[in-house]
């Protein structure tokens, strides 16, 4: 996988204040408000606010960067992978150096054909690590996302849709 470098988040994390639609799965665990990057239909083929979100993230990356890579959880991982695929195809971040790595925790691929035809046209060459939970409702979509990358490192854990707590007995690294 190569070397890992720690960086300073000098400007913090990107913010996107789109209120979550409907009931949240984390009610009772964390207090509201709940936010999401974009909204989607049940089949994950129609999206609301996606283009605005992509523009927002590209503006952030361009003005606050350069960045070496992206890390995301759930929608954040799904969006990060999309940006990597779009950048590789010359659709976004044309003036930003190529992103070199990606860490996905419970991510998935977009399913809309016109997105897939561009973002996942070729295997994404950035080095990638994919954390996939045995009990995650996005387990299969996470595996599909990992398959969109060239030589992904997959770390399987026994938990669900969460940032996993890992120790030697909780993970099974595979390639």
How does this structure look, described?
Strands 3-4-5-6-7 form a 5-stranded mixed β-sheet, with helices on one face. A two-stranded antiparallel ribbon has the order 1-2. It has helices spanning 50-64, 75-88, 113-119, 139-147; strands spanning 39-40, 47-48, 69-73, 101-105, 127-133, 153-157, 172-174. The chain has a domain at 57-174: Rossmann fold (3-Layer(aba) Sandwich). Helix 2 (75-88) links the parallel strand 3 and strand 4. With 175 residues, it is of the alpha/beta class.
Feature tags:
disordered N terminus; Rossmann fold; two-stranded antiparallel sheet; alpha/beta; five-stranded mixed β-sheet; 17% strand; 175 residues; single chain; 7 strands
Radius of gyration: 16 Å
Strand content: 15-25%
CATH topology of one domain: Rossmann fold
Tally of helical runs: 4
The assigned CATH architecture of one domain is 3-Layer(aba) Sandwich
Helix-and-strand structural type: alpha/beta
Enumerate the spans where pLDDT stays under 50 for 5 or more consecutive residues. Answer: 1-10
* Helix share, percent: 25-40%
**Separation, N- and C-terminal Cα atoms:** 11 Å
Sum this structure up briefly.
Helix content is 26%, strand content 17%. The chain is of the alpha/beta class.
């Amino acid at each position: 996988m190569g070397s890992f470098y720690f960086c300073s988040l000098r400007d913090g994390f990107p913010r996107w204040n789109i209120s979550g639609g409907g009931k949240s799965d984390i009610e009772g665990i964390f207090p509201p408000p709940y936010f999401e990057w974009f909204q989607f239909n049940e089949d994950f083929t129609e999206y609301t606010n996606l283009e605005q979100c992509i523009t927002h993230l590209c503006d952030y990356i361009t003005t606050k960067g350069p960045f070496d890579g992206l890390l995301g959880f759930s929608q954040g991982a799904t969006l990060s992978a999309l940006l990597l695929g779009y950048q590789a195809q010359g659709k976004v971040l044309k003036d930003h150096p190529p992103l070199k790595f990606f860490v996905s925790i419970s991510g998935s691929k977009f399913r809309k054909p016109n997105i897939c035809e561009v973002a996942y046209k070729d295997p994404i060459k950035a080095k990638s690590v994919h954390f996939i939970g045995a009990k995650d409702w996005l387990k299969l979509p996470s595996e599909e996302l990992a398959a969109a990358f060239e030589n992904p490192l997959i770390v399987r854990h026994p938990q669900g849709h969460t940032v996993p707590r890992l120790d030697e007995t909780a993970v099974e690294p595979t390639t």
